[in-house]
Write a structure and sequence with these properties.
Length: 375
């Protein structure tokens, strides 16, 4: 997540608070257009637990690609123009399962990797190996390996994946044809304010991003709670307010409390996620948060730079990132459009939380398809 978009992507939203707003133009809220009926997807049926993920859609292909010095697991399906799907925390390629199937059916080649530190992709040991430069370097190397014949590709990001997509467009706009980003807005770098200082000042030390900073500390607490419980807590988080993880108190629920799953998330989905996190752990994904300050330093050359690729942005009105301080005004009063001049549409989906592409896959699929069809 990134708050303002962190875990439950909770990882990026509050950065809006770092902006010096100068706004005078509103972006109209775009209502969903009429959608094509064949974009609907059916919930996958997992016949055997051991095959969850691969048997969900047997024709989704899986392979390992060497990129930027690591081995990266990639799921893909379809032929045609490539759409790169970039996941967030605490997710995997699997969070895009509905989009992969739908967009492949509509004539695209859908590619979704497990990012550095996640799932079946390598997880370097050094915390400093998870900066924005490493993450974009992985993406560029992946595109060179799987789409050498395409100068530019379509990109879809969510949570931390949305942040990586913004970085990709900032560093290498020559590789992106158009972008659909979910949940996390682009936050221009404020040279006068370090992100962690803001998080602590606004939310205090129990704010989840602050709790993620000390290596090994939150991992030990997660180990006591159990992998499935931690994943369920994140994936069912629906409070539009900030996420706090007080030391020793976890998510604030009794250890044996039953966590009810929403209709869009099955026990088999959780089992698949858990099978990968039990193997790889949470450290890789959490290391992204531990590089927030270093990223701020590395981004200094891009202070004042804009995102100059065509963009469509989608967020749920119950997403904690959308409800972070300053975010709505940033979107509605011109700040977002100023930072992303080719922003064409902003979609705010009513009654939808952070994990928007899993909660409302059909609607998201249609938005992606309708936007990319313009190009």
């Amino acid at each position: 997540m990134v708050s303002c978009n962190f875990p439950v992507t909770f990882s990026a939203c509050l950065l809006v608070f770092l902006l010096a707003f100068s706004v005078n133009k509103q972006i109209p809220q775009v209502q969903p257009s009429s959608f094509l009926p064949f974009l609907t997807t059916q919930k996958p049926q997992h016949k055997q637990e051991k095959n969850i993920g691969s048997s969900m859609e047997e024709d989704i292909q899986h392979k390992v690609v060497n990129v930027n010095g690591i081995n990266m697991h990639v799921a893909e399906k379809g032929q045609g123009p490539l759409i790169l799907f970039i996941h967030g925390f605490p997710l995997l390629w699997y969070s895009w399962r509905h989009q992969i199937t739908a967009l492949a059916t509509l004539g695209y080649r859908a590619v979704a990797p497990d990012l550095r530190g996640y799932g079946d992709t390598d997880a370097p040991a050094e915390v400093s190996s998870y900066t924005c430069l490493h993450l974009v370097g992985d993406v560029i190397a992946l595109l060179d390996a799987v789409a050498a014949d395409q100068e530019k590709v379509f990109v879809v990001g969510h949570d931390w994946g949305a942040l990586i997509a913004w970085y990709l467009c900032l560093f290498r706009p020559d590789r992106v044809k158009a972008l659909v980003n979910l949940s996390v807005v682009f936050n221009p770098r404020n040279p006068n304010m370090k992100p962690l200082q803001v998080f602590k000042a606004v939310y205090g030390d129990d704010y989840y991003i602050c709790r993620f900073q000390e290596p090994g500390e939150i991992e030990a607490e997660f180990a006591q709670m159990g992998t499935k419980t931690v994943l369920k807590e994140f994936l069912t988080y629906r409070n539009p307010g900030p996420l706090f993880l007080p030391k020793g108190k976890g998510f604030g629920h009794p250890p044996d409390a039953r966590i009810a799953l929403p209709s869009w998330l099955s026990e088999e989905d959780v089992k698949y996620y858990a099978s990968k996190y039990e193997k790889a752990g949470f450290t890789g994904g959490i290391n992204y948060y531990r590089n927030i300050e270093l990223n701020w330093e590395l981004l200094a050359p891009w202070t004042g730079a804009q995102i100059k690729v065509p963009v469509k942005f989608i967020v749920g009105d119950l997403d904690l990132t959308y409800n972070a301080p300053g975010t709505k005004d940033y979107i509605n009063k011109g700040g977002f459009k100023k930072a992303v001049p080719l922003l064409e549409e902003v979609i705010v989906m009513e009654g939808v939380g952070h994990f928007i592409n899993e909660e409302k896959p059909d609607e998201v699929n249609k938005h992606i398809y309708n936007f990319f069809q313009k190009f």
